[in-house]
């Protein structure tokens, strides 16, 4: 995977306060990465560093091989950015807005019609003033603006906040399409649940420090959080040998039993449990969610 963004040993200070501390990571082509962290963790600061809007106090930022703050304008043309709060000139229509941004970015404004279609902004809305748009429509317009000039890297700050579930689904479909075409997508978000299965990799920052970086599978392996196994016994009172095998099972009504099992014992236990399938009428395996992992890493990586 070829790298599109490189952040190496980057710190950013404002006066006495260090808001990003010695962070390093790279982003690859066709990679969708979630940047997650509490409010004030430093996510927007990292995005602004990649955009070249601010410069690091220490360390190196490279975007498509160049320093985005001083490098060639062509590099900035290949970046798309959707800020956390999109604010447009309310008097302009959607079409005028996009043409305005196309001129700023010095990219072809003629393709804006396609962009409206791609982000699902209805044709009838395109020539209406932005003040008549709903929040979702403004967010779509913001996304269309970010997609101007077919960026190789998209930096999206809280892109789905305020979107209804249908719009969110649409949004992630578009991200999948872009990934297939080789675009690097960085999503800063608080919406952990919706990122599962959508981001290739997750970077967690806390108080300006990177505390985790990996695929969901890698983070699960590092965190070693237990898996929850929930079963339904065909006969409520049955006591197969594995129920007394040193694990703490909780019995519920109608033959329901469940327990938390460590990742190293999980496969052997499942083997025992399923060796007599007639004993079971249901089985659910729940792996730690991104929410669980996030809480774990914020907690200093200590399993409670
Ligand atoms: N121009 C600035 N001057 C001083 N401090 C700043 C400046 N910009 C950001 N900060 C501080 O840097 C810290 C990180 O802010 P940042 O906006 O990067 O956080 P964030 O993770 O994006 O938060 P949120 O999820 O709330 O958007 C915050 O404490 C913020 O107050």
Automatic annotation (TrEMBL):
GO MF: ATP binding; ATP hydrolysis activity
InterPro entries documented for this protein: AAA+_ATPase, ABC_transporter-like_ATP-bd, ABC_transporter-like_CS, ABC_Transporter_VariousFunc, P-loop_NTPase
Domain ABC transporter: 5-232
CDD domains documented for this protein: ABC_DR_subfamily_A
UniProt keyword annotations, A-Z: ATP-binding, Nucleotide-binding, Plasmid, Transport
Protein family per UniProt: Belongs to the ABC transporter superfamily.
PANTHER family noted in UniProt: ABC TRANSPORTER ATP-BINDING PROTEIN ALBC-RELATED
Name the record gives this protein: NosF ATPase
This protein's encoding gene: nosF
């Amino acid at each position: 995977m070829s790298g599109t963004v490189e952040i190496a040993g980057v710190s950013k200070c404002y006066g006495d306060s260090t808001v990003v501390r010695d962070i390093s990571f790279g982003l690859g082509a066709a990679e969708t990465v979630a940047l997650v962290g509490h409010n004030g963790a430093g996510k927007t600061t990292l995005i602004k560093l990649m955009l070249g809007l601010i410069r690091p106090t220490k360390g190196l930022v490279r975007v498509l091989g160049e320093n985005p703050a001083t490098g060639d304008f062509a590099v900035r043309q290949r970046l798309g950015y959707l800020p956390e709060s999109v604010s447009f000139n309310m008097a302009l229509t959607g079409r005028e807005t996009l043409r305005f941004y196309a001129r700023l970015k010095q990219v072809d404004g003629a393709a804006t019609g396609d962009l409206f279609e791609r982000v699902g902004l209805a044709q009838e809305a395109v020539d209406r003033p932005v003040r008549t748009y709903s929040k979702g429509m403004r967010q779509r317009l913001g996304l269309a603006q970010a997609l101007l000039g077919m960026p190789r890297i998209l930096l999206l700050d809280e892109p789905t906040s305020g979107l209804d579930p249908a719009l969110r689904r649409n949004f992630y479909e578009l991200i999948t399409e872009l990934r297939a075409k080789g675009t690097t997508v960085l999503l800063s978000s608080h919406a952990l649940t919706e990122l599962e299965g959508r981001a290739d990799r997750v970077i967690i920052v806390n108080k300006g420090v990177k505390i985790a970086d990996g695929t969901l599978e890698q983070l699960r392996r590092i965190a070693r959080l237990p898996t929850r196994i929930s079963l339904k016994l065909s006969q409520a009172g049955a006591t197969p040998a594995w129920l007394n095998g040193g694990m703490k099972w909780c019995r519920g009504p109608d033959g329901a039993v469940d327990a938390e099992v460590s990742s190293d014992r999980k496969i052997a236990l499942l083997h025992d449990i399923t060796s007599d399938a007639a004993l079971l009428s249901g089985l659910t395996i729940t792996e730690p969610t991104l929410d669980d992992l996030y809480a774990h890493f914020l907690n200093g990586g200590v399993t409670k």
